[in-house]
Amino acid sequence: MNHPNAEEGNIQRGLKNRHIQMIALGGAIGTGLFYGSASVIKLAGPAITVSYLIGGIIIFFIMRALGEMSVEQPVSGSFSQYAYQYWGELPGFIGGWNYWFNYIVVSMAELAVVGTYVNYWLPDIPIWVSALVCLVAITAINLIHVKAFGEFEFWFAIIKVLAIVGMIVFGVAIIVFGFGHGGVPIGLGNLWQHGGFLPNGVYGVILSLVMAMFSFGGVELIGITAGEAENPKKSIPQAINQVVWRILLFYVGALTVILAIFPWNEMGTQGSPFVQIFTHVGIPAAAHLLNAVVLTAALSTYNSALYSNGRMLYGLALQGNAPRLFAKLNTSGVPVAAILVSSGVTLFAVLLSYIDPDRVFLYLMAVATIAIIINWAMILLVQLKFRQQKEAEKVVLTYKLPLYPFSSYISLAFLASILVIMALIPDMRYSLYIAPAWLLCLYIGYQVKAKRQSEPVRNY
C-alpha cells in the first residue's frame, strides 16, 4: 500500500505551543458548556459534576491514545492518516470522512445557537441572519494563513478561559459573601436542598453522560494540529497533559458554582445557564458580559471546526480518498478549496435555523454525538493496531498511553454504553438510525472510489 506523506503539499508549521493548547481548549469549551449544560442539569441536577468527572477520565485515555500516535508521527490529517496506514484503506476513508462530517454538524450546531445569543441584545434580528454573518466572517479568517487562525483562536479561547475563571471567583464571592445578593451569602445549600444531590437518581446521571461527552468533543483537535505544529514532539504532549485537567477544572468548577448559586430545578433550557443565573441574582451587567463570552465561545468552536475540516479534506485528498483539488494549497499553505467547500456545506445550518430555530441545536447535537463516538472509537482501535506494529518493530515510544491495553478496552466499552444510553433518550434515538445509514454511504462511496481507481485509463 502506498502511504502518502502529509508534508508533500508544503503545508506550513506555523502553530506555536500556546496556539495548540488554546485550540484544544477552544474546541472543547464552547456550546456544550455554555448552552448545552442546561439540558444536562435538567437530567442529573447537581450530580452533573459526576458525569463530567467520569467523561473526563475516558477523554484522558482517548487523548493519550491519539497523542501516542501524533508524537511518533506528526502529520496533517491526524487519525485518518493513522487508520489508513495501520489499519487499511477503508478505515482511513471512513475515519477521515466521518471526522469531516462530525465537524460539519458541530459547525452547524454552533451556527444554530449564535442567533440565540445575539437575540439577547437584539431580539428582532432573525437567527438565520446572525448565523450567516458568523459563517462569512470565520471563513474569511481561515482563508488568510494558519497563523491568523491560530492567533484568532488563541484570543477567542483566552476570553473564554478568563471568563470562566472570573465567573468562578465571582460566584464564590456570591456564595460566601453574598456579593450582588444584598450581602446575604447564598451558601452551598442549593447543591442538595432541592431533591438531593441525586434528584433523579443514578439513572439521571447515566442519561446525562451523553451530553457530557458531547461537551468534550473537540479535544482531539490537538491531533489535527500536529502537522502544523512547530515542535510537535514537545508541544503535543504538553498540550494533552495540560488540557484535560484544565477542561475538568473549568467544567466541574464552573458548574458547581452555578448550581450553588441557583436552584437546578428552576433553571430554564432556553439560553445559557451562565447568563440566566447572573440575570436572576440581579447583576444585569455581568449577564451582558457573559452573553458576549458565550457568543465568543460559539465563534471559537466554529473557527476550530472549520480549520479541522479543511485539514481533514486536505489529508483525505493526499490519500486519494478525496478529489485532488482539496490537496491544493495557496502561497500561505492554506487548503482554500477544502475550507470553502466545508464552509459552504454548513450553510445548511442557516436553513435549519430558519425552518426550526427552537429545536435545531438538539437535533444537530444528537447527530454530532454519534459521529464523535465513531471518531473516538476509531482512535482507540487504530492505537491498538499502531502499538502492536511498533512493538513488533521494537520501536520504543517516547509518549505512551497509560494502563495500555486496559485503558483502551475500558474506553471502547464506555463509548459503546453511550450508544445504549442514547437509545433511551427519545430526542436522540433517531441519530442511532442515521449512523448505520451514514456508514453505509461511506462504504458505498469507498467502493465507488476503489472501482474508479482500478479502471484502466482510456485514451481517446
TrEMBL record:
- Gene Ontology process terms (BP): amino acid transport; transmembrane transport
Instruction: Indicate where this protein resides in the cell.
Output: Cell membrane
TM segment ranges: 20-37, 43-63, 125-144, 156-181, 201-222, 243-265, 277-302, 334-355, 361-382, 403-424, 430-448
- Describe its membrane topology: Multi-pass membrane protein
Name of the molecule in the record: Amino acid/polyamine/organocation transporter, APC superfamily
Q: Which Gene3D superfamilies does the UniProt entry name for this protein?
A: Amino acid/polyamine transporter I
Family statement:
Belongs to the amino acid-polyamine-organocation (APC) superfamily. Amino acid transporter (AAT) (TC 2.A.3.1) family.
An example of a Gene Ontology cellular component annotation for this protein is:
plasma membrane
